[in-house]
Amino acid sequence: MSKIVYHYTSPEGILSILENKTLRFTDCQYLNDTSEFIYISEPFAKAIEKISKKYNVIFDNADVNFTIKSLLTSPYQIDEVDYAKIMKEKSGAFNEHVKSNTKTYRYYVFCCSKNEDASNMWNYFVKNGVYRGYNLGIDSDVLRDKFNDISACNKKIKIFSKEITYSFNKQVDIIFNKLDEIITDKHGELSTMLATNDMDILNKIRFGCWEFIHMQKLFFKNPAFESEKEYRFVLKVDNDFNECDKLSMKFRVGDSGVITPFIEWSYSMNDKRELFKQITLAPMIESNLAEESFKRFLDSKVYQNIKIKQSSIKMRF
Question: What does pTM read for this prediction?
Answer without folding.
Answer: 0.87
